[in-house]
Design a protein that fits this description.
- With 429 residues, this protein is α/β, with parallel strands linked by helices.
- The chain folds into three domains: 73 residues, no CATH class; 80 residues; 170 residues, Rossmann fold (3-Layer(aba) Sandwich).
- The protein is 38% helix and 16% strand.
- The protein has eleven helices and ten strands.
- A six-stranded mixed beta sheet has the order 7-6-5-8-9-10, with helices on both faces. Strands 1-2 form a two-stranded antiparallel ribbon. It has a two-stranded antiparallel sheet with strand order 3-4.
- Helix 4 runs antiparallel to helix 5, helix 8 runs parallel beside helix 9 and helix 9 packs parallel to helix 10.
- The longest helix has 35 residues.
- The radius of gyration is 39 Å and the shape is flat.
- The two termini are 37 Å apart.
- About 3% of the residues have low confidence.
- Belongs to the UPF0229 family.
């Protein structure tokens, strides 16, 4: 059996292997603490690490103890409460005994606080986004500009030293040595046999000159065999790489946020936290996902990341302006045949009276046939308005690719986010 031992040094004498085992063993407890941390964080500190706590009773190790049976005599130094023959009552409660974890004050007993430790940024985000993915992500067919992957394409006599094939080079060298030595070895064997035959003759019939000639020939042939190099430049073989076009899994996420006057500052903060979670999720798990930020009130604009999260622009509400802009951007820059298209929209549900029907038609006729997934979150504690009801019609028609959820307060952000982007068992490849 082969054993692999990780002897890589760890910073400050810490054991990375033991830390990973600990995180995996208490994953459920850590994940619960991480969810609570996400709900209480502000926009600006969403991606830093986190100090989490685990109840001490949950990390206790099993131990062997003596059973209650048998007669034992115990001497307790410093005992002032009991005399010989007194029965000692078993301590009540759990954890550290009397006074530990109780609601009221106590003059005796000890206890332990919860075990606390700090997760790094990477560890924190790993727990935040565990089990999430972009739904229905597909590899698109080959197009003119596609993802290129370098693959091995056989062997060649020329190449860089880093790509040398040692096994093939040694095989070529061995074959060359056999081929070059074979005729010399045959000649050597013949000379050795002739010398042996000459030396076996009667001394009277033996030819001394012939013996000297054969010995010289044998020495010459042995030197020729030794002169054959172990490996030659001719033997070297190198792995060749060729550019092979690959189906592309590139994707683009459109982040659409309502910034109209009906969106209060609290609503906007919730929407920003939702989109910040989405931004961190895509940044951590996907290399080829582009982000397009769209803000809208009566008019929609494509903006950069800074303006999307921090601009103070406001106005009336026409949601169809944002959907039209998304459709135009797709037509110009992101053909559906080459890109996986996603849209995440956040709004309070308020819209111009006659515009909700237009939004429904835009989704059904233009956007949804091209999109992989559309996620709509409505941030409101009140009854749904016309936009939600029109979107329900779209959800019925595109049930697997259109999802809509309601967020009432900040505590709903993370559960809703996980529900929208949870890993599907029937994920298309």
């Amino acid at each position: 059996m082969t054993y692999f031992i990780d002897r890589r040094p760890n910073a400050k004498h810490k054991s990375a292997v033991n830390r990973q085992r600990f995180l995996e063993r208490y994953r459920k407890h850590i994940k619960r603490s991480v969810e609570e941390a996400v709900n209480r964080r502000s926009i600006t500190d969403m991606e830093r690490g986190e100090k989490v706590s685990i109840p001490t009773k949950d990390i206790s190790e099993p131990v062997f103890q003596h059973g209650p049976g048998g007669a034992r005599q115990i001497v307790s130094p410093g005992n002032k409460e009991f005399l010989e023959g007194d029965k000692i009552r078993r301590p009540s409660g759990q954890g550290g005994g009397d006074g530990a974890g109780e609601g009221g004050a106590s003059n005796k007993g000890e206890g332990d606080d919860e075990f606390a430790f700090t997760l790094s940024r990477e560890e924190f985000l790993e727990f935040v986004f565990d089990g999430l993915e972009l739904p229905h992500l597909q590899r698109k067919p080959l197009k003119s500009l596609e993802e290129i992957k370098m693959v091995r394409a056989g062997l060649a006599r020329d190449g860089v030293p880093s790509r040398i094939s040692i096994t093939r080079s040694m095989r070529e060298a061995y074959a060359r040595r056999i081929a070059m030595r074979a005729p010399i070895k045959r000649a050597l064997k013949e000379a050795q046999e002739a010398l042996a035959a000459e030396e076996r003759k009667d001394p009277v019939l033996r030819n001394p000159a012939r013996i000297v000639e054969l010995k010289a020939e044998i020495e010459r042939l042995e030197k020729r065999i030794e002169a054959v190099p172990f490996i030659d430049t001719y033997d070297l073989r190198y792995h060749q790489l060729a550019a092979q076009p690959q189906p592309s899994s590139q994707a683009v996420m459109f982040c659409v946020m309502d910034v109209s006057g009906s969106m209060t500052q609290n609503h906007k903060d919730i929407a920003k936290r939702f989109f910040l979670l989405l931004y961190l999720f895509l940044e951590k798990h996907y290399e080829k996902v582009e982000l397009v930020f769209v803000r809208h009130h009566t008019a929609a604009r494509e903006v950069n990341e800074e303006e999307f999260f921090y601009s103070r622009e406001t106005g009336g509400t026409i949601v169809s302006s944002a959907l039209n802009l998304v459709n135009n951007i797709i037509d110009k820059r992101y053909p559906a045949g080459q890109w996986n298209l996603y849209v995440a929209q956040a709004s309070d549900g308020d819209n111009w009276d006659d515009d909700s029907n237009i939004c429904r038609d835009l989704l059904v006729k233009k956007l949804m046939p091209q999109l992989q997934y559309y996620a709509y979150v409505e941030i409101t504690p009140h009854e749904h308005q016309s936009l939600w009801h029109e979107y329900e019609t779209v959800a019925e028609q595109f049930s697997e690719r259109f999802a809509m959820r309601q967020i009432v307060d900040a505590g709903d952000i993370y559960p809703v986010f996980r529900e929208l982007f949870k890993r599907r068992l029937s994920q298309e490849q």
